[in-house]
């Protein structure tokens, strides 16, 4: 396959912020975006499909903001980028929980596959807290930012890319003028508008961060914005309709990246490209794709230093480059059988309309089996990657039949390979449901889980059920919670019960306060097969409902009194469920050097839950941060507890040694550093680190303090 690592053109995808050095021809538009953002904190970047909206914001505006090019705003921007998807509030919480936005700033808190379990848990807790805050009401986003006590010099920018996704989940029976959108979409838009209108969020210090909103949207969805109150007015005040690039700007977009990459392009090819693209803004992705392929042809295949007309014609020009690229991929398939199967699949999944335009033609799984004349096992193996792509492009009308076909296929096989392929498609299609459509499919999945004890099937169905649970509206979540609570009691298989509990943890967070949901939560809490995680989630939701007198509907408080009599073992007065979250916030403050706040938060967590089991690594993190910030005496107890819980961990001994040295416990500090040396030799720690500890031991033995302010400053830099 061709090596694209040095190719300066992204092809059909948008430019990313880190590719700003390759983004040419939009300098004037970038400056105009910044000018408008200074005037309004809600900016809608609108244009036709393929006009470069996402690229302009990501590779034009964002780098300019970080570079301080927006006068009067400074360069300290916290930027969250998201797409609405099927659950825009959940997507917003995830984006805000990023360590670079409002989440933990701990090193390694990445949340990806390489993140430590503790980091993932901290991010998950932060995301859950933010999701709850966002769902409080219209000012949820403002409150989420306010609670972080950001400096007044900070600016928060939320970029909602492909805003038109909010309009995908419509009632198919409604007309275009009165299309019905989900409750989540309405609440999401209200959050954005309230944040853009709000003054800078206040803090105890009197400052606060301003919130800016930028959306990108296809211009053909402008009329749909009228479904949301106040959104048309906001767009009218802050709209930027992307203009066509001039011929000179298109020339820069062609020649600039090539020069940056150390190659050149013949003038005759530049003229040909400019003529082929014309004034049609929809052709910009096609131009980028053609340039990407021309680069590969000239620089990679021909080992040339200059792109020329012959290279462009060899890839088919703008008119045929995509077709030829697809043919190349097709030719690289494993064998004739794979190519024949692929051809039949694509012919089955596409069709020509009355104007001879190609369009998608969704098919049921059993129909594809007939068309391809393949056994289910062979066909599913070939469809695995295509299944995910097709599932992600389904319209709301297509989602139901396709999902039912997937469900039948899952129930019809016990082959692990087939089920793995089907699971990926099921997770994608489950995320495409609108809140109102997700309910019936959740019930189908519930029945399917009850109907099997085969572990692979249960695993796949459980993942689908969790994905659908995230899409449910509060009303549907209540109905699904009732059904699942009953199902746990009926289930005889432990794997079935486990799958139900996993989905219930998602559902209880969606429940809105009412008399009915109060009793429902009590039913969950008294269940004999309840596990600790589900108990924590249920208690958190129940206490959240009861803590806000304005939230429950009339009569709920009388029911609370009745429920207390029925379930006296449940302690509603305790706030212990908050303790782990408060403890994590304390660690975050310690990492920032805010030891007073950190210790106060840890004390509050311990007061809320005297039996709070803080993990050894969390105690060690507090020990290390406190010692580095000259608060060793305040955190020495945490150091001792961390070593007590994990005595073989040399790193914990090392951090306690630092705290002991700073509190005058020299001999004990030497013992800890010596233990680190033994551990470091066994575990292969860097020799430089070992030499440093030997120097510390020698200094301490000579009754000298090696930890001068410059040394501590250097250690803090290493920690950061």
List the SSEs and their pairings:
Blueprint: H1 27-39, E1 42-47, H2 53-66, E2 77-82, H3 88-96, H4 117-134, H5 140-146, E3 155-160, H6 183-197, E4 210-218, H7 231-237, E5 239-241, H8 247-260, E6 264-265, H9 267-277, H10 284-301, E7 306-307, H11 309-314, H12 317-331, H13 336-349, E8 350-352, E9 358-360, H14 365-372, H15 376-391, H16 396-411, H17 416-430, H18 435-450, H19 455-469, H20 474-490, H21 494-508, H22 515-525, H23 532-547, H24 556-566, H25 579-591, H26 595-608, H27 616-628, H28 632-645, H29 650-662, H30 666-683, H31 687-701, H32 709-719
Parallel strand pairs: 1-4, 1-5, 2-3, 3-4, 6-7
Antiparallel strand pairs: 8-9
Helix pairs in contact: 1-2, 3-4, 10-12, 15-17, 16-17, 16-18, 17-19, 18-19, 18-20, 19-21, 20-21, 20-22, 21-23, 22-23, 22-24, 25-26, 25-27, 27-28, 27-29, 28-29, 29-30, 30-31
């Amino acid at each position: 396959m061709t090596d694209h690592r040095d190719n300066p053109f992204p092809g059909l995808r948008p430019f990313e912020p880190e590719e700003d050095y390759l983004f040419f021809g939009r300098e004037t538009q970038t400056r105009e975006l910044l000018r408008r953002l200074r005037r309004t904190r809600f900016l809608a970047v609108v244009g036709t499909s393929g006009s470069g909206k996402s690229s302009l914001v990501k590779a034009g505006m964002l780098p300019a903001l970080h570079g301080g090019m927006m006068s009067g705003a400074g360069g300290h921007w916290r930027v969250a980028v998201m797409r609405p998807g099927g659950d825009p509030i959940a997507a917003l919480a995830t984006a805000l929980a990023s360590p670079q936005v409002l989440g933990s700033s701990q090193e390694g808190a990445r949340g990806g596959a390489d993140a430590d379990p503790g980091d993932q848990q901290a991010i998950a807790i932060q995301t859950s807290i933010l999701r709850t805050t966002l769902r409080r009401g219209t000012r949820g986003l403002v409150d989420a930012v306010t609670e972080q006590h950001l400096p007044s010099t900070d600016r928060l920018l939320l970029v909602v890319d492909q805003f038109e996704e909010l309009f995908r989940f419509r009632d198919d029976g409604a007309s275009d003028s009165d299309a019905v959108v989900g409750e989540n979409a309405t609440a999401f838009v209200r959050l954005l508008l309230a944040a853009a209108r709000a003054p800078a969020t206040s803090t105890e210090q009197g400052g606060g961060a301003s919130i800016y909103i930028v959306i990108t949207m296809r211009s053909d969805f402008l009329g749909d914005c009228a479904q949301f109150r106040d959104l048309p007015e906001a767009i009218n005040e802050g709209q930027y309709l992307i203009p066509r690039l001039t011929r000179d700007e298109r020339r820069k977009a062609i020649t600039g990246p090539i020069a940056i990459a150390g190659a050149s392009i013949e003038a005759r090819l530049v003229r040909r490209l400019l003529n082929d693209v014309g004034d049609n803004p929809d052709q910009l992705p096609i131009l980028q794709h053609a340039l990407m392929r021309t680069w590969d042809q000239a620089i990679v295949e021909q080992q040339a230093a200059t792109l020329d007309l012959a290279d462009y014609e060899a890839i088919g020009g703008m008119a045929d480059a995509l077709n030829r690229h697809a043919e190349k991929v097709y030719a690289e398939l494993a064998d004739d059988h794979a190519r024949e199967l692929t051809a039949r699949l694509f012919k089955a999944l596409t069709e020509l309309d009355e104007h001879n335009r190609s369009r998608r033609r969704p098919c049921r799984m059993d129909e594809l089996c007939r068309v391809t004349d393949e056994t289910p096992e062979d066909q599913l193996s070939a469809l695995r990657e295509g299944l995910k792509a097709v599932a992600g492009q389904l319209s709301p009308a297509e989602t139901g039949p396709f999902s039912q076909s997937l469900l039948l296929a899952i129930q019809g096989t016990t082959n692990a390979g087939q089920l793995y392929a089907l699971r990926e498609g099921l997770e994608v299609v489950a995320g495409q449901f609108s809140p109102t459509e997700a309910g019936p499919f959740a019930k189908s999945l519930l029945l399917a889980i009850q109907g099997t004890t085969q572990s692979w099937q249960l695993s796949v169905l459980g993942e689908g059920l969790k994905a659908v649970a995230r899409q449910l509206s509060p009303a549907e979540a209540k109905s699904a919670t009732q059904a699942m609570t009953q199902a746990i009691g009926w289930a005889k298989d432990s794997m079935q019960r486990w799958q139900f509990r996993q989905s219930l943890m998602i559902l209880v967070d969606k429940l809105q306060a009412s008399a009915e949901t109060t009793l429902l939560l009590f039913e969950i809490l008294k269940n004999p097969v309840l596990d600790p995680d589900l108990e924590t989630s249920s208690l958190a939701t129940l206490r959240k409902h009861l803590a806000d007198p304005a939230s429950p509907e009339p009569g709920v408080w009388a029911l609370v009194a009745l429920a207390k009599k029925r379930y006296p073992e449940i302690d509603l007065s305790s706030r212990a469920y908050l303790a782990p979250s408060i403890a994590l916030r304390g660690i975050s403050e310690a990492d920032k050097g805010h030891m007073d706040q950190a210790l106060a938060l840890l004390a509050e967590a311990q007061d809320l839950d005297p039996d709070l089991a803080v993990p050894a690594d969390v105690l060690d993190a507090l020990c290390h941060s406190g010692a580095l910030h000259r608060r060793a005496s305040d955190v020495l107890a945490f150091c001792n507890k961390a070593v007590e819980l994990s005595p073989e961990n040399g790193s914990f001994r090392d951090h306690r040694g630092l705290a002991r040295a700073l509190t005058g416990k020299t001999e004990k500090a030497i013992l800890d550093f010596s233990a680190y040396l033994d551990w470091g030799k066994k575990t292969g720690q860097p020799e430089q680190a070992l030499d440093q500890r030997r120097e510390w031991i020698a200094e301490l033995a000579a009754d000298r303090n090696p930890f001068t302010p410059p040394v501590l400053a250097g250690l803090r830099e290493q920690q950061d």
